[in-house]
């Protein structure tokens, strides 16, 4: 028996649960071009040491492999552009910058719990099965979100929502319920290349490829061991991750700030003393980042990053203050 629901009510329920946008697509496989591009990207070595990306590639582009009998995917987005972030300190010890998303509580639990609530709310008197996914599941979530009408994939390789821009967390509810799909999103970056020009290491290529081996976000968040000297000198003040390509995006500048208060925000994490972080113990790390997605990176990588930033020019007071 196929369990049929009203798609509009499902999306309304998603918004009431704390999501800022919701769209629906089928659980049919994504277009073959997506998988080919991904496999070519892997073959070129652009995934760096992220070997987990090469596992279950077929599943990544076929939501039906995640859940037997799946018919639909509800794609959701949580906007996280803050109303403001602290400016870079002009006095005291040199400081390193933590990416905006690291200032929030861990979005994985926030999104997963609400997706499960959405799945239960869809049940009614009928039985349906569902699986809640965040970015730890093997799904091509940006391609699915685009097919569900939530936005287009920009030259910065991020999903760009027409209203909320690229500062969105994504999640998916794969379900056996049959829901009317939304039309795929249209649009694109056109001739704009501000994100490419803003990338400090050339990781973003004009052909739309992201080379993780040169990406500051990857290097400071996932790479183990020493950072190549040529690249470490370009970290600037990036203590944890990098959002230069996002900040340069016109959609990001026009996007409204998040006004909901159901998602914990900790602005005091934005700027941290580099000499202090370089000496941190695991207890120091836990004290600052408990409950944050930054905990996935660990104290050893953050200490390494602080040392790299100290060797660079991040403490140059001639640099304009960050807003």
Description of the molecule:
With 323 residues, the chain is an alpha+beta fold. The chain contains 13 helices and nine strands. It has helices at 7-16, 32-43, 57-60, 107-121, 141-147, 194-198, 216-221, 229-232, 244-247, 250-254, 274-278, 282-289, 299-311, and strands at residues 21-26, 72-79, 95-98, 130-133, 152-153, 159-160, 168-175, 238-240, 271-273.
Number of strands: 9
Nearest-integer average pLDDT: 93
Question: Count the helices. How many?
Answer: 13
Biggest sheet architecture: 4 strands, antiparallel
Instruction: Give the termini distance in whole angstroms.
Output: 55 Å
The run of helices and strands is HEHHEEHEHEEEHHHEHHEHHH
Bin the strand percentage. 5-15%
Rg calc: 20 Å
Strand order of the largest sheet: 1-2-7-4
Q: What is the percent of helical residues? A: 25-40%
- Low-confidence residue ranges: 314-323
Judged by helices, strands and strand pairing, the structural class is alpha+beta
């Amino acid at each position: 028996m196929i369990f049929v629901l009203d798609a509009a009510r499902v999306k309304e329920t998603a918004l009431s649960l704390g999501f800022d946008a919701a769209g629906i697509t089928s659980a049919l496989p994504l277009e073959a071009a997506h998988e080919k591009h991904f496999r070519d990207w892997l073959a070129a070595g652009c995934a760096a040491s992220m070997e987990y990306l090469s596992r279950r590639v077929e599943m990544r582009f076929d939501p039906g492999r995640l859940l037997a009998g799946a018919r639909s995917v509800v794609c959701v987005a949580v906007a996280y552009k803050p109303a403001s972030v602290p400016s870079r300190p002009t006095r005291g010890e040199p400081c390193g910058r933590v990416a905006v998303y690291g200032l929030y509580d861990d979005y994985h639990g926030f999104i997963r719990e609400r997706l499960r609530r959405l799945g239960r709310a869809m049940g009614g008197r009928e039985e349906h099965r569902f699986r809640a996914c965040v970015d730890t599941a093997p799904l091509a979530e940006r391609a699915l979100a685009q097919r569900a009408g939530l936005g287009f994939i920009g030259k910065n390789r991020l999903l760009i929502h027409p209203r909320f821009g690229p500062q969105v967390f994504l999640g998916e509810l794969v379900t056996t319920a049959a829901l009317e799909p939304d039309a795929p999103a249209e649009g694109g970056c056109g001739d704009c290349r501000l994100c490419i020009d803003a990338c400090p290491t050339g990781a973003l290529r004009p052909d739309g490829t992201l080379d993780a081996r040169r990406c500051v976000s990857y290097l400071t968040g996932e790479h183990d061991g020493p950072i190549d000297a040529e690249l470490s000198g370009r970290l600037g003040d990036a203590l944890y991750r990098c959002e230069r390509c996002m900040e340069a995006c016109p959609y990001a500048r026009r996007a409204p700030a998040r006004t909901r208060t159901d998602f914990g925000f900790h602005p005091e994490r934005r700027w941290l003393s580099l000499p202090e972080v370089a000496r941190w113990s695991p207890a120091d790390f836990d004290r600052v980042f408990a409950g944050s997605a930054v905990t996935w990176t660990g104290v050893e990588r953050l200490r390494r990053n602080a040392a790299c930033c100290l060797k660079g020019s991040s403490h140059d007071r001639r640099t304009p203050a960050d807003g």
